[in-house]
Amino acid sequence: MQEQRRTIQAIGLGFIASLFLSSTFIINSLLAHTTGHWTWTAALRSIFLIPILGIILLCSKQLKPMLQAIQQMPGLFIQWGILSFGALYTLLALASLFVPGWLVAATFQINILAGMLLAPFIYNDHRSKIPRRALLLSVLILVGVLIMQFEKLQHVDHIGGVILSFFLVLGGAVAWPLGNRKLMVELEKRGLQLNAVQRVMGLTIGCMPLLLFLCCIGYVQTGWPPIGQSEASFYAALFSGCLGGVGFYKATHLVKHNPVALSTIEATQVFEIFFTLIGEMILNHAGFPGIYGTAGMLVILVGIGMHCYTAVKHKPAISLQLSS
Hints:
Low-confidence stretches: 318-324
Order of helices and strands: HHHHHHHHHHHHHH
Helix content: over 70%
Transmembrane segments: 12-32, 38-59, 80-99, 105-123, 135-153, 159-179, 200-220, 232-249, 261-279, 291-312
Protein name: Putative multidrug resistance efflux transporter
Keywords: Membrane, Transmembrane, Transmembrane helix
Number of strands: 0
InterPro entries: EmrE
Number of helices: 14
Largest sheet: none
Distance between the termini: 15 Å
Number of domains: 1
Pfam families: EmrE
């Protein structure tokens, strides 16, 4: 029962996190055609995130342990910080220049499969085994994604931009679960206990070399970012980086010893498509999907529903008490 409660709690957190994470795609889409340079869009979100999380950690007296962990292993946080947060948001910002936010969000769902397929290269224990049922359900979800976007793909003008954006988002979709899982494994090996807020803060600080490089490019190209771009990036940091990122990392931490449940948490990110569509319908007056979109939504809902059922009923080889 305790294992099931943990899994249900993690699924709920994953769903809520996807709501806030979708703000990245919506804001990137809105900023793609403004006067601000894309490098500022990629960098400002994480730069604003540092003081927000710093205040939270300072008030909870968790800032010092996190800084001590970075001091002990700066290379670890720089490596996975640049790969996960730095590369992810750089690639997403670039992809938003070529296609709408909903299409970026849809393509990003490849990370659902990436996390599972990378498992044999990340873990040395029972988690290295790819759960077959979870894999098939994730494939079903991605089929629904393709169906839902089919009618919109027919109206995209520049197919070259679609192809380029696909590979950009593909890189981010692999970097995101890889960085998250690898950091948890490395912290486990060293016996360091960092909560979700501390891990997100550590990864954000770790990607600062890349962020500063992007800021230099943006300044040389267009000067300082416009006020509107800075405000939008702050909201992305607050909603996506703080609320969404921390919520997702907390959810994965709860089930980190359960590969089936972990794949389900990563699959909950598919709701980002729905939230992004709703956001673009409100802000960009995008139309509601037609027959293909509706059919794709139904397939996705069936897939994620079966995913959640499988995760709740599954009993991991190692007790989830180890993840506390």
